[in-house]
Write a structure and sequence with these properties.
By secondary structure, this protein is α+β, with helices and mostly antiparallel strands. The protein is built from ten helices and ten strands. Helices cover 34% and strands 26% of the residues. The longest helix has 26 residues. The chain is globular, with a radius of gyration of 20 Å.
C-alpha cells in the first residue's frame, strides 16, 4: 500500500484536525455543501426577483437580463465554496511554504462562486457575497455600512445577464472537474482549485488556454510571495479599482515543501 493511501485510510480516525505523520502534513476539514447551496439559492432568487421588479417599475428594457431571458425555476446552480487566506499568511508565508497551511477552510463567513446554468450551459457567474460590497465591509469593520441602492441596481441590471457567449469558451473545462472537491481562493478569481487523492491542484481558465498544475507550483510561478501576502491582508486584485502590486514570481526557491495531503469530510 502506498504511503498516501495509508495516510488517507487513517484520516477518519483523526476527525477534524491537522496532524503530522511520517514527515508529511495531513489537513482534515469538515464541510457541509448544503450550507453553501442554501445561501446561493436564496441570493440568486433575490437578485432575480429584484431585477424583475426594477425592470418593470422603471420601464427599462434589457433583453439580456436573466429575469427576461429565463424562468427562475429553469436555472440550475453549480456552487463552489471559496475560502479566504488566513491573515497569518501575511507574516509566515513564503515561497518555500505550502499554501494548504494558510487556507481558511472553515471560515465562518460563507464565500462562493456560483455558476448559473440553463439548458446545461453556463450563462452567468456570481461571486457571493458581492466582492465590492464585501471588501467595503472588511475594510470598515466598525461601521454599519448600508448597501447603496443605486450601485446595487446597477449591479443586478448590468451583471445579472446572460453571458453564455463568454462562458462557452471555458465551460467544458469547468464542468470536467466538478466531480472532484473543488473550491476557490478569495481574490484569485480565474482559478479553481481541486483536491485529487489528497493533492491540491490549480486549474486556470482562459479563452485560449487551460492550465492544470500543482497548486503550489502554480502560485510560485504566477503569483509569488508578495501577491499571496497581499491577498492575506485583504488587498484583492481587480476589485473596485484597488491598486495592487503585479505578481512577482518566486525566484530560486528551494522547492522542498513539506508534502501536504487534504481530506474533506462531508457532514
Amino acid at each position: 500500500m502506498s504511503k498516501l493511501n495509508y495516510l488517507l485510510l487513517l484520516l477518519p480516525i483523526f476527525g477534524h484536525s491537522q496532524i503530522s505523520i511520517l514527515n508529511d502534513t495531513i489537513i482534515v476539514k469538515k464541510y457541509n455543501h448544503l450550507d453553501y447551496e442554501i445561501v446561493a439559492s436564496d441570493t440568486i432568487k433575490s437578485m432575480y426577483e429584484n431585477q424583475k421588479r426594477f425592470l418593470i417599475n422603471s420601464h427599462v428594457t434589457n433583453e439580456n437580463s436573466l429575469s427576461n431571458k429565463s424562468k427562475l425555476n429553469e436555472l440550475n446552480l453549480l456552487t463552489i465554496p471559496c475560502f479566504r487566506l488566513k491573515r497569518s499568511a501575511n507574516e509566515f508565508y513564503d515561497c518555500d511554504k505550502s499554501i494548504e497551511q494558510f487556507i481558511a477552510f472553515e471560515d465562518h463567513v460563507k464565500y462562493m462562486f456560483t455558476f448559473i446554468m440553463s439548458n446545461n450551459k453556463i450563462i452567468n457567474l456570481q461571486i457571493i457575497p458581492n466582492p465590492i460590497f464585501e471588501i467595503e465591509r472588511i475594510n470598515n469593520p466598525d461601521s454599519q455600512l448600508e448597501v447603496n441602492g443605486f450601485r446595487y441596481r446597477e449591479m443586478i441590471l448590468n451583471d445579472f445577464t446572460d453571458d453564455s457567449d463568454f462562458f462557452k469558451f471555458i465551460q467544458d473545462d469547468i464542468l470536467s472537474i466538478k466531480n472532484s472537491f473543488i473550491f476557490g481562493i478569495y481574490g484569485i478569481w480565474d482559478v479553481i482549485f481541486e483536491i485529487e487523492n489528497g493533492e491540491l491542484f490549480a486549474n486556470k481558465f482562459g479563452f485560449n488556454s487551460f492550465i492544470r498544475m500543482n497548486a503550489n507550483d502554480y502560485l510560485n510561478h504566477y503569483l509569488g510571495e508578495i501577491k499571496i501576502k497581499e491577498l492575506a491582508r485583504g488587498y484583492y486584485e481587480d476589485i473596485d479599482n484597488l491598486g495592487t502590486l503585479e505578481p512577482i514570481p518566486c525566484q530560486n526557491h528551494k522547492n522542498e515543501k513539506l508534502k501536504t495531503f487534504i481530506k474533506i469530510l462531508n457532514n
